[in-house]
Predict the structure.
Amino acid sequence: MVWASGNYIELNVKRKDAENASHQGQCDDDVKWLSEQSYIKKQTAKIDAESLRKELKEYGAWDEEELADHEQNIQRILWIFSGNIKDGNN
């Protein structure tokens, strides 16, 4: 397990799972699969929606309307953190 963190959010992710959720091409299905793993669900259930919005807003990739969707935000942060873990930037 590897910790991935930002300014407001921390998650503990299995390295293999992170590597599977970060690759060339579409990652949506793999990130969705990761989000459904029980050890991830336990962690993401505790994430405050506002903290997650603040975390993602710092990336500047999504507007306010997009950031209003908490479930999509969970997918986004899992994708970002998976990439950070895979690249050794955690």
Q: What stands out?
A: Residues 35 and 41 are 6 Å apart (CA to CA). The helical segments are 15-20, 28-35, 38-44, 49-57, 64-67, 70-87.
